[in-house]
Amino acid sequence: MKIIRTIIEMQEQMQKLKSNGKSIGYVPTMGFLHEGHISLMKNARPENDVVVLSIFVNPLQFGPTEDLDAYPRDFERDHKIAEDQGVDFIFYPSAEEMYPDSASVKVSVVDRTNVLCGKSRPGHFDGVATVLIKLFNIIQPTRAYFGLKDAQQVAVVDGLIKDFNFPIELIPVETVREEDGLAKSSRNVYLSEDERQQAVELSRSLEMARHAIERGERNPEELVGMMKNHIHENTSGIVDYVEIYSYPELKELETLKGKVIIALAVKFSKARLIDNTIIDLEVK
């Protein structure tokens, strides 16, 4: 496995591989790798000749109240995890390498961002889109792997790839879960013992909605009300949102049709947890 820190060297390596007909699987991360990232690498490895992992804590996607310096970093640990998963290259640039000068062009994501977690993080997805445009041009992947735990990000990336005509196949990867169904997250460690037992009710509420849809329910308000009641009655958490939209467009629906996302965020005493499920009503 090779570690590359400069854009020029990364581009040269990738262009050489592409000219030799090699397929490139790409997993973008901000490091401090966890099981969700490992799942992305596991999916990328058998589907590509070469797997590239990037580790870059992108300052542009941090809001004014979010502490960039406090973001956890452990490159040696990340290096070992990537090596164990058969990664071929780690692209590990500095902020100065990625953003050497003030930008003359700014990227603004105008759709798919004013709902779910995006509505409370203005500008966040502008930063995500900016860095991904740069990384896609540097790495030139055949396929890019993103976790559906952050389904809104996947929706934004889907729009980015289509709008800018990147010759990249987007591969969404299912959320990694604990045995009881709780979505795995680094934030789970901040739950108390009681909260951890309660937290499984988040995924159960999503399953309840899925079963109701299978029985014919198509009213978003009914489904949202049912889920909120379940969470309220079975947890001490405070519901931030339970929302249903078309996917990946993230548009409101009067009645469910096509592909939809049901997403939630719940605040416990020291952790805010998110989860979602995506259902295609046209698939029998």
Task: Note down, in words, how this protein is organized.
- By secondary structure, this protein is of the alpha/beta class.
- The chain folds into 2 domains: 2-173, HUPs (Rossmann fold, 3-Layer(aba) Sandwich), CATH 3.40.50.620; 186-276, Pantoate--beta-alanine Ligase, Chain: A,domain 2 (2-Layer Sandwich), CATH 3.30.1300.
- It contains 8 helices and 9 strands.
- The strands form 2 sheets. It has a 6-stranded parallel sheet, with helices on both faces. Strands 7-8-9 form a 3-stranded antiparallel sheet, with helices on one face.
- Helix 2 (35-47) links the parallel strand 2 (24-29) and strand 3 (50-55).
- Helix 7 runs antiparallel to helix 8.
- The protein is globular.
- The N and C termini lie far apart (43 Å).
- The model has no long low-confidence stretch (mean pLDDT 95).
- Keywords: ATP-binding, Cytoplasm, Ligase, Nucleotide-binding, Pantothenate biosynthesis.
- ATP binds at residues 30-37, 147-150, 176, 184-187.
- One of its GO terms (biological process) is pantothenate biosynthetic process.
- This is Pantothenate synthetase.
- Pfam families: Pantoate_ligase.
